[in-house]
Design goal:
about 210 residues, mainly alpha, Arc Repressor Mutant, subunit A, Tetracycline Repressor, domain 2, elongated
């Protein structure tokens, strides 16, 4: 079976999910959106749940590659943090919080994929970043990196909780940015603050 066609179905499903949430989108909707028969759709995915799991896995693999690229190309831990912020802006600005809610409530297997990724990749990567920052003198040495790494990842989930931050009142990206900036400045030493300000000012002047 064609990998290109499978990827096209995943991309088409993601497009509709981001617009309307997962629960309200049917396999009929996806087939119609892609201009293909539902029979063709079911050649690749037995049901919507399987499609959602495939979509989550694809995006998590992409996120892991981006994280590794940022680590490899950044000169120090503060530059990593700034580049992570820019990467996060791209991701969070297109995420519909309803999608997060639907995955948690209706697709537990897909949500488990994310939880495993968080435990195996994200928390470990953040712990290593914090340790490296302490060695470089930019992150406060009094921090417990395990606690801070877990706290940060749960902050992200909280930011997408629509019962706390209703989408009618809050921009998901602005919420995530505020939480991330609060975290970054909270963990930095004075020299870390200075470098963080330098990078932020440079990014702001480029964007203007």
């Amino acid at each position: 079976m064609s990998t290109d066609q499978k990827d096209r179905i995943i991309a088409g499903g993601e497009e509709l999910f981001m617009q309307a949430g997962i629960k309200s989108v049917t396999m009929d909707d996806i087939a119609r959106h892609l201009g293909m028969s539902k029979k063709t759709l079911y050649q690749f995915f037995s049901d919507k749940n399987e499609l959602v799991i495939a979509l989550i896995k694809k995006n998590l693999n992409k996120d892991e590659c981006q994280i590794h690229q940022i680590i490899e190309t950044s000169g120090n831990v503060i530059e990593e943090m700034i580049n992570m912020m820019k990467c996060s802006e791209e991701i969070y600005s297109r995420i519909n919080p309803i999608v997060i809610h639907d995955i948690q409530k209706y697709h537990p297997d897909a949500w488990k994929e994310f939880q495993n990724f968080k435990a195996d990749v994200l928390i470990n990567t953040l712990e290593q970043l914090l340790k490296k920052g302490i060695e470089q003198g930019f992150i406060r040495p009094d921090l417990d990196v395990k606690i801070l790494a877990k706290m940060r990842l749960n902050q992200v989930e909280m930011g997408f909780n629509t019962s706390i931050f209703p989408v009618t009142e809050f921009s998901p990206w602005k919420v995530q940015y505020q939480l991330l900036e609060h975290f970054n400045y909270g963990i930095c030493t004075l020299s870390g603050h200075e470098l963080l300000d330098q990078y932020k000012n440079a990014v702001t002047s480029i964007s203007n």
